[in-house]
Each structure stands twice: as structure tokens, then as C-alpha cells.
């Protein structure tokens, strides 16, 4: 279930993400087909999507690919048993033609297997096993009535988190999301709550079978998968990631980087939301889920692969842009209509060359001093201004 809801809610949710024969073929009206008008429909995770008929065709193709990929996973489930993906050896029988687990995950985890695969491969199951079974229940009960700056901000953000969603934007959805976010704000007071986490936790609630598992997925993300300090008060980790990305863009897409620098375009204008919300606000839901499939197995470097791919896919159009607003419009228009995850991930993992984790770690360490110096200078400037105001 999404959270603390009834068995009826669980049944609705399970039906919503069932990927096999139950996945409907989207059929825009004949008038929409003729006029190529914008049409609205719900995706597998309950989000209302706007697109044209071409987008509908892409989504139908994607749904067929999801069915086919599901058959591969179920075949392995039947032949190798549950949790086959936890085997030490990542090379399978001739049935898989030597495909590794990494390649299989990059092709997509079937939606109804995501909860168990994510929970195991991310390390969330191991993290949960280190505390008493009642940990989450005891935590949420203990902090339910406490009021802090974090809880006040969470309450402010709940109705703004995917408004209009069929479950998230309900009293039940708000209550479940609040318990997860408030619980984590007390688990890690250094993070507390940062805007952006509401969108991440909301998607985790839609995917995981229980509210408690969504909490542990959020914990493993912040404590093990992502870099440190991405969500602390000064967002230093996020600033580091943006600097590393700017360097990677120069190396992997030099023409784009040079053009944007000549325009004085700051990549943080688009990347801040990507890195804080893990693309959950920027991309269609199934495309985001495919990125998260890889994120939970390969780590945070995946966020760079995807960011580079978005720029690379728009190279020629970006080179024709001459205003900051034009660049933002090109990027946002693209991300809004990236309904085909394979199109994005093919560029991310096959057309941009390898990115070695150790090299990225070195780049992060290289950028940290400059980021901390800049943040310290910002604090001193603010303190000076506040001092002047008091005089």
C-alpha cells in the first residue's frame, strides 16, 4: 500500500502499476488524431500527462517494451528463483546471451518488481535489518505531535507536492508523505528537511509496497547512495555536484559548454532541480523510474550521465540559442516530453563515453574547497548586511 491506508488502497495501487496485459493501450479521440491536438491521460503511476498524439504513440511503444522486459525478468524468476539478482555472479545463462545484471537493469526493472529489487540492491533492506522491527512505527509515533522548523516547512509543502495526483493529493496521501518526511527529519537532524525531498519521497511512496519501505529507501538514498550534504542547510553537496557537472559538460560536450559560457549561462538554473529532486519534477514518471533503477544499483554518477544526455540530445538547438531564456525553454520542453526512457538512457550510457566513479570522486574533492569558501563568503556577507541593518 502507499502508506497507512486500507487494503482497498493497496488493491488500487497494485492494479495501477501492474504492467502486463492490464496495461491499457492509450487511444486519443479521432478528433485529436486529426488535429494533432494536446490530449490528457493518466500514466501508470497516476499522474495526468499532457501530450500530443506522437507522445501517445511513444508511450504505447514504451508500454510494450515494459511487457517484453517483464517476460525476461519473470523467466529468470522462474528458472533461478526469487532474489536471483543478489547472486555474486552477474553473468547468466545463454538465455540471457551473456547480458550482465547492469545491462539488464539499464533496460528497466518491471514496475511490479521494483519494490523488491530496489529494496535489496540499494542496501535499504540491510539498513533496515540493523534496527528493531518496530523502529519506524516507534519513530513516527514519538514525533507525531512535535513541531519544529522542519515540520512547519513539510506541512507547507505537502499540498504543493504533485497537486492533482489521484492519491498523493488526498488527505491519506498527505498523511503518509508527512510521516515519512517528519520521521526522517528526526532521524537525521543535520538534514532535517530540505525542499526537494518531498518529491523524492512522494515517488518512493508510489513505488514501494509500504510506507515503511519508502522511509528506508529515502534513508539509504541520503545516507549511502547520494553524496554527503546534498540536503543540508547550505546545500554544499549540491553545489559541488553542479561544479562537477559543469566540468563534465566541458569535457563531454565542449561545443555546448563553450556556447553556454559565452552566453554567461549558469547550468545550475536547470541542474539544481534535477539534482535535488532526482528528476522527479522534470521528467515523465516512468522515465524517472528508469533512472532510479540505475541510480539504486550504480550510484549517484548516474545523475551526471542523464544531465549530460539531456544537453547532448539538444546540441544543435542549444547552439542556435542566444538568450538564457531560450536555453531554459529548450531544456524544459525536452524533459517534459521525454516519454521514451530508452532514447534518453541510450545517449546517457552509450554515446557519451565512460565515466569512472573514482574520477568523479576526485573531481568532487577538488571542488569542495572552492564551494565551502564561496558559502563562507556568502555567510559573512549576509552577517555584515544584517549587522548594518541593526545599526
Automatic annotation (TrEMBL):
Span of domain Rab-GAP TBC: 108-299
Organism name: Erythranthe guttata (Yellow monkey flower)
SUPFAM superfamilies listed in its UniProt record: Ypt/Rab-GAP domain of gyp1p
Lineage: Eukaryota, Viridiplantae, Streptophyta, Embryophyta, Tracheophyta
Signal peptide per UniProt: none
Recorded coiled-coil stretches: none
Gene3D superfamilies according to UniProt: putative rabgap domain of human tbc1 domain family member 14 like domains (1.10.8.270), Ypt/Rab-GAP domain of gyp1p, domain 1 (1.10.10.750), Ypt/Rab-GAP domain of gyp1p, domain 3 (1.10.472.80)
Matching Pfam families: RabGAP-TBC
GO MF annotations in UniProt: GTPase activator activity
Protein known as: Rab-GAP TBC domain-containing protein
Amino acid at each position: 500500500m502507499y502508506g497507512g491506508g486500507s487494503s482497498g488502497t493497496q488493491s488500487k495501487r497494485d492494479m495501477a502499476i501492474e504492467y502486463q496485459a492490464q496495461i491499457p493501450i492509450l487511444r486519443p479521440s479521432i478528433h485529436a488524431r486529426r488535429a494533432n491536438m494536446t490530449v490528457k491521460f493518466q500514466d501508470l503511476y497516476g499522474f495526468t500527462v499532457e501530450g500530443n498524439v506522437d507522445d501517445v504513440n511513444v508511450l504505447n511503444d514504451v508500454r510494450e517494451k515494459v511487457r517484453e522486459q517483464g517476460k525476461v525478468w519473470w523467466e529468470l524468476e522462474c528458472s533461478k528463483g526469487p532474489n536471483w539478482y543478489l547472486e555474486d555472479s552477474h553473468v547468466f545463462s545463454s538465455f540471457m546471451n551473456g547480458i550482465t545484471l547492469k545491462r539488464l537493469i539499464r533496460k528497466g526493472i518491471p514496475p511490479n518488481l521494483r519494490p523488491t529489487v530496489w529494496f535489496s540492491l540499494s542496501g535499504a533492506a540491510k539498513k533496515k535489518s540493523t534496527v528493531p522491527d518496530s523502529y519506524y512505527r516507534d519513530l513516527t509515533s514519538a514525533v507525531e505531535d512535535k513541531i519544529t522548523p522542519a515540520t512547519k516547512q513539510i506541512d507547507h509543502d505537502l499540498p504543493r507536492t504533485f497537486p492533482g495526483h489521484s492519491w498523493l493529493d488526498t488527505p491519506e496521501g498527505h498523511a503518509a508523505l508527512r510521516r515519512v518526511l517528519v520521521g526522517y527529519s528526526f532521524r537525521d537532524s543535520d538534514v532535517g528537511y530540505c525542499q526537494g525531498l518531498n518529491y523524492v519521497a512522494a515517488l518512493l511512496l508510489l513505488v514501494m509496497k509500504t510506507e515503511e519501505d519508502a522511509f528506508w529507501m529515502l534513508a539509504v538514498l541520503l545516507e549511502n547512495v547520494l553524496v554527503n550534504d546534498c540536503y543540508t542547510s547550505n546545500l554544499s553537496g549540491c553545489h559541488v555536484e553542479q561544479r562537477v557537472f559543469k566540468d563534465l559538460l566541458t569535457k563531454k560536450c565542449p561545443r555546448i559548454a563553450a556556447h553556454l559560457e559565452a552566453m554567461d549561462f549558469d547550468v545550475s538554473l536547470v541542474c539544481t532541480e534535477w539534482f535535488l529532486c532526482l528528476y522527479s519534477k522534470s521528467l515523465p514518471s516512468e522515465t524517472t523510474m528508469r533512472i532510479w533503477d540505475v541510480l539504486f544499483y550504480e550510484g549517484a554518477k548516474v545523475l551526471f550521465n542523464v544531465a549530460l544526455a539531456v544537453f547532448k540530445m539538444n546540441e544543435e538547438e542549444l547552439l542556435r540559442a542566444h538568450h538564457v531564456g531560450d536555453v531554459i525553454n529548450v531544456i524544459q520542453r525536452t524533459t517534459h516530453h521525454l516519454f521514451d526512457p530508452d532514447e534518453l538512457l541510450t545517449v546517457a550510457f552509450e554515446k557519451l563515453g565512460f565515466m569512472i566513479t573514482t574520477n568523479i570522486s576526485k573531481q568532487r574533492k577538488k571542488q569542495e574547497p572552492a564551494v565551502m569558501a564561496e558559502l563562507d563568503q556568502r555567510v559573512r556577507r549576509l552577517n555584515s548586511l544584517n549587522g548594518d541593518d541593526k545599526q
